[in-house]
Design a protein that fits this description.
This protein has helices at 4-7, 12-23, 40-73, 100-113, 118-127, 134-141, 170-177, 235-247, 256-274, 276-300, 306-333, 338-349, 351-357, 360-370, 391-404; strands spanning 85-87, 96-98, 149-150, 160-161, 185-187, 200-201, 209-214, 219-224, 232-234, 375-378, 383-385. By secondary structure, the chain is of the alpha+beta class. Helix 3 runs antiparallel to helix 10.
Length: 431
């Protein structure tokens, strides 16, 4: 082939395939990278090329993803325009407009908010010249793009204000997605007074808590909507108990500085452990040094002629330089994130007040980070259960409690590196 990266960019898989082919007498030859794979040095060089090809592929992919994410953060959309919208071709900047189909999509939202079924909406749209199956309707109704917001898997759950025109307002979008309500009650959507809605579930029926407002009392409540299950709890009571739960994971302000030191060391250790690229490069560098040493030794003993020695020595030097350059780049990229640690420690010392000060969406993000699998509210004990807790916050709570117990488990001098962390899912691991 023209070059080894045309054969494969899978790194270790390519090395394995090349080895299996060689056993059958098949050699891989790149016309632009002449390597004699009949020698150990040649096999090593070929393997290094495979590793570099995978690394280059990963870098290209990451750059592409970063570019797409930056575009989304600017409010520009990537991919095809959702149904009802069109791109303006030839515009200097990305311009999205509402097309003729957009009027029908808007009407579909109105019908859904009024309680019309998917089948009825689909039939009415078909009569107006638009084919819209139920699955497509479901995707449209759940897409915040139509109310001016953008959601994408590259945004990690974050909603971004788009630069495109909103087809409907947020109230209509929410009404189209939550059609529950009875006389005397008002169903709430993205309401700052009900941040635990859907996030909290009943552990016995596994159904989520929803929220509503009793107009006559002016009070908010959470309830479970399931036949045979009668659970209604005051929003104030559930919020107070949630803040009590947060106190279990809140670190003492006196421990912030030593915890910053400890987290810095933990970050270093975790980074080293998780950096597969750095490990592979270091291993290849060591192997290359060993091969180079053997080559020099054989040359000194007269077992390798001058011409062959210089040929392989120059190739090895060039390979070594490339590896060292890549290791240096990795070291720069994996630097200690001081600002992130500072912000995390501050938040960990003020969990309840930070949560209370945010709006609905920030509270939702905060809750999902701290309790990634949500919470259960057990009415038998009138308190929360935590299926899984963020291991970082659990770890910091554990360290803080151990410090209060005069560091009975961890070293008295926190400058001594300790990178161990509790397993994910434990409520503070020191309990």
């Amino acid at each position: 082939m023209y070059s080894l990266d045309r054969f494969s960019r899978t790194g270790d898989s390519a090395i394995y395939i090349a080895g299996q082919l060689k056993k059958t007498g098949v050699n891989i030859i790149a016309v632009t990278q002449p390597i004699d794979t009949n020698s150990h040095a040649g096999v090593l060089q070929q393997n290094i090329q495979f590793i570099f090809s995978k690394y280059d592929n990963d870098l290209r992919r990451q750059k592409t993803i970063d570019g797409m994410r930056e575009k989304l953060l600017r409010g520009d959309w990537i991919g095809h325009a959702p149904r009802g919208y069109s791109f303006v071709k030839g515009a200097d900047t990305q311009t999205i407009i509402i097309n003729e189909q957009g009027k029908l999509v808007k009407q579909a939202f109105i019908w859904r908010a009024e309680g019309m079924t998917y089948e009825h909406i689909s039939d009415k749209l078909k009569g107006m010249g638009m084919t819209m199956p139920k699955t497509t309707l479901t995707e449209i109704f759940r897409n915040p793009f139509y109310c001016g917001l953008m959601s994408h898997n590259l945004l990690n759950g974050e909603l971004i204000k788009g630069r495109h025109p909103a087809l409907i307002d947020e109230d209509l979008f929410l009404r189209a997605n939550e059609l529950k309500g009875t006389d005397g009650y008002k169903t709430n959507k993205a309401n700052d007074n009900l941040p635990l809605k859907v996030f909290v579930k009943d552990p016995y029926s596994t159904k989520p808590f929803t929220g509503y407002l009793v107009r006559k009392k002016g009070l908010y409540y959470y309830k479970v909507n399931k036949v045979g299950v009668k659970i209604n709890r005051s929003a104030k009571m559930m919020h107070d108990k949630f803040k009590e739960l947060l106190e279990d994971y809140t670190i003492s302000a006196d421990h912030i500085e030593p915890l910053k030191v400890q987290l810095g060391y933990t970050w270093e250790n975790l980074t080293d452990q998780s950096s597969g690229e750095k490990k592979v490069l270091t291993m290849q560098l060591n192997q290359l040094d060993e091969e180079f040493y053997n080559l020099r030794k054989r040359h000194a003993l007269g077992k390798v002629v001058e011409e062959i020695y210089h040929e392989f020595a120059s190739e090895m030097e060039a390979s070594k330089k490339k590896i060292l350059d890549q290791v240096q780049k990795l070291n720069q990229r994996l630097s200690n994130p001081k600002e992130l640690i500072d912000d995390t420690c501050y938040m960990a010392a003020h969990l309840a007040s930070v949560w209370e000060s945010w709006d609905y969406y920030d509270k939702q993000n905060f809750q999902n980070v701290l309790f990634p699998e949500g919470l259960h509210y057990d009415i038998k004990i009138e308190h929360y259960r935590t299926p899984k807790v963020n291991s970082v916050f659990g770890y910091m709570a554990c360290l803080s409690r151990d410090l209060d117990k005069r560091k009975s488990r961890f070293p008295h001098n926190l400058s001594e590196k300790n990178g161990s962390v509790p397993r994910a899912g434990l409520e503070p691991a020191c309990q």
